[in-house]
Amino acid sequence: MELNNLIKEKVDKLIKFRLNQGVTPVELMSNIYNEDYIEVKAKRHFDQFFCNVSFYDCDFFTDKKVRVEYKYTYDNNFYLQKIVSVKNRNEQIIWSRSEEETKLLNDIIDAFSRVDNKETVNFFIKNLPDDLQELLQNHSIMVS
User: Fold this and answer.
1) How far apart, in whole angstroms, are the C-alpha atoms of residue 8 and residue 132?
2) Which of 23, 40, 99, 135 is least enclosed, having the fewest CB within 10 Å?
3) Mind listing the pLDDT tens digit for each residue in 21-46?
4) Structural domain range at position 14
5) Cross-sheet strand order for the sheet of 48-58
6) 69 and 125 inside one domain
7) Model pTM?
8) Same domain, 31 and 77
9) End of a domain among 60, 78, 95?
10) CA distances from 93 to 11, 73, 83 (A)
């Protein structure tokens, strides 16, 4: 029964994650009133929306002020998809929705693989939204 609770907890976490939009473009735009931010930009390109915020931060090693830019990418429903940090012309992905979702799915798949009773697995999967059922089926977890 403990494994069933673990699966339920992980599935609930995945559902909450998928419902959470993340920081919204409006919240980012309001940062222009914060004196630490020097620039806030937004643009749309086809079915994506981009927000960039820039500020100065102290370099970790030299204590010099360095311009930092965060690039936020949204889908057409304004769900945050990715955050990229740009510092000294180096881009680094800070957060990715697809990577986070993949980690959660892998946790669920791992938990499902430890269940002896496939009816339990099917019960959980059949009660998920259709798109999540499809994702799990694409990862070789079949619903009979």
Assistant:
1) 14
2) 99
3) 999 999 999 999 998 899 999 999 99
4) 2-20+98-138
5) 37-45, 48-58, 65-74, 80-87, 90-96
6) no
7) 0.84
8) yes
9) 95
10) 26, 11, 6
